[in-house]
Recover the amino acids of this structure.
């Protein structure tokens, strides 16, 4: 009848429980209420009005998202930008026997010089896998006789140190790589001009021209 | 005067409702008068320091004043105010523990307990009731705070198991087992008194 179900435990500790109940009741000091009301009137609440910091999910999600985006940006973006083909790291193309051309075929081809205007070209289409080897290839006779001194190196002048035309810009142009066509034609051995042979060839050309003029006039008479 | 008389006849829950609705300070004062001493006794037995306990009870009343709207009608006012006081008392213990970790020398309380440990087993001294009360208080301070809180609320404050469960926010079974463990530890500490 109304017996507490925890009575068994309470019987076991009955002496202790009665001692605890007999402990003197501690009371507040007499001016407790007065002090309390003074505090309330003066609004002297100490740090009891301070709000506890809120640890809501949004407060964690936003900074963590920003940090992770920055990390991804740092890690992956430069890696994609740095994928530039270094022509010196590419294996040179194998030249098969069928691709070789005899020297007479090369010499008979037109050896006129050309100076190509610099143009922006598509890397995939135009940049040779190995520009140096391709420039010297017998398959490309036009590149065989470089004339433009800005795109070539005169070996004698270079070895003797008398290369007045070469400056830093020139050197840069020669070794430059990138999106533009490779501007190095090759090495050359310049020959000094022989005035006698030059006059001789001029006279020969003049006589040929005179002969041709005579031939044309005779044709017209006939 | 009859108005004040009426207020004193109101239950705790009616008084706080009045305080919430009309912000009437008299209702608040009556509740303070009703609970200041029980709370003081509870907090003192829990932290073992009169001045600190007085401050904690003051802070409890200030919290009650500031957060009166957070009280909900379905809860008992007594359990609500005991929860506030208990939380503040636990914070004080945590602060003390932090301080004792940071300081190289033991605190005054720790020194006293260590010295009293020897006297606390002398049965001849336990005859005097004041000394006995002092010994019991020191034994209380030696048991774990989770057990101490439960034992104080049950055996000193005389609250029901259900009320204790509500105040401490644990299940009834946990309350029962913690009280049992607390009493066992206390009995062990006070065995020289009870072996007589």
């Amino acid at each position: 009848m109304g017996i507490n179900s925890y009575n068994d435990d309470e019987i076991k500790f009955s002496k202790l429980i009665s001692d605890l109940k007999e402990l003197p009741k501690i009371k507040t000091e007499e001016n407790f209420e007065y002090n309390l009301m003074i505090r309330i009137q003066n609004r002297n609440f100490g740090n009891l009005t301070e709000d506890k910091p809120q640890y809501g999910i949004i407060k964690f999600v936003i900074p963590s998202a920003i940090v992770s985006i920055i990390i991804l940006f740092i890690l992956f973006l430069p890696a994609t930008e740095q994928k530039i083909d270094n022509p010196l790291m590419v294996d040179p193309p194998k030249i098969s026997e069928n691709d070789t051309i005899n020297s007479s075929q090369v010499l008979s081809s037109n050896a006129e010089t050309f100076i190509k205007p610099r143009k922006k070209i598509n890397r995939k289409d135009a940049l040779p896998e190995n520009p140096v080897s391709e420039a010297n290839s017998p398959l490309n006779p036009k590149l065989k006789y470089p004339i433009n001194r800005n795109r070539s190196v005169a070996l004698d002048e270079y070895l003797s140190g008398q290369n007045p035309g070469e400056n830093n810009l020139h050197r840069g142009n020669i070794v430059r790589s990138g999106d533009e066509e490779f501007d190095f034609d090759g090495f050359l051995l310049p020959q000094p001009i022989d005035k006698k042979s030059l006059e001789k060839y001029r006279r020969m050309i003049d006589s040929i021209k005179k002969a041709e003029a005579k031939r044309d006039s005779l044709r017209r008479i006939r | 005067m009859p108005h004040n008389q009426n207020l004193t006849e109101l239950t705790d829950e009616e008084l706080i409702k009045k305080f919430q609705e009309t912000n009437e300070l008299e209702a608040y004062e009556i509740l303070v008068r009703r609970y200041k001493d029980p709370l003081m006794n509870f907090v003192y037995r829990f932290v073992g320091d009169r001045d600190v306990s007085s401050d904690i009870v003051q802070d409890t009343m200030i919290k009650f004043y500031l957060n009166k709207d957070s009280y909900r009608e379905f809860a008992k006012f007594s359990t609500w105010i005991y929860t506030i006081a208990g939380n503040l008392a636990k914070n004080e213990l945590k602060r003390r523990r932090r301080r004792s970790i940071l300081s190289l020398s033991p605190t005054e309380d720790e020194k006293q307990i260590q010295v009293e440990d020897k006297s606390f087993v002398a049965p001849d001294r336990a005859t005097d009731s004041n000394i006995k009360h002092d010994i019991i208080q020191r034994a209380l301070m030696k048991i774990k705070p989770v057990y101490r809180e439960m034992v104080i609320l049950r055996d000193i404050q005389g609250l029901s198991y259900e009320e204790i469960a509500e105040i401490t926010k644990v299940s009834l079974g946990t309350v029962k087992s913690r009280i049992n463990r607390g009493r066992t530890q206390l009995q062990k500490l006070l065995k020289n008194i009870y072996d007589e």
Summary: The radius of gyration of chain A is 49 Å. The first helix of chain A runs from residue 7 to 12.
